[in-house]
Specification:
Elements: H1 2-8, H2 10-23, H3 31-42, H4 47-55, H5 74-79
Helix pairs in contact: 1-2, 2-3
């Protein structure tokens, strides 16, 4: 999910999550339903993201996104 957040930005991501929960409350949905919902709501082509993170057979490379203080490895935090 974090990769989706990085791909679309915080505002769009949180609107997507709230909209998804609201649209599917008390119901069932598939991964295909979610990807279609996300594509439509963010107005972006996320197919490469889905292929790498959802349908790919190998672990995708790590993101180059900066880490927040809670996400830094222990060794990095103790050096600060």
């Amino acid at each position: 999910m974090h990769q989706r957040r990085l791909a679309v930005g915080d505002d769009a991501f949180f609107a997507l999550v709230r909209g998804w929960a609201r649209a599917h409350r008390h119901g069932n949905a598939s991964a295909a339903d979610f990807t279609a919902f996300a594509q439509q709501r963010t107005d972006r082509d996320l197919s490469a993201l889905w292929e790498a993170w959802l349908y790919g057979s190998e672990k995708p490379p790590p993101s180059n996104a900066p880490r927040g203080p809670r996400q830094q490895p222990e060794a990095s935090r103790s050096a600060q």
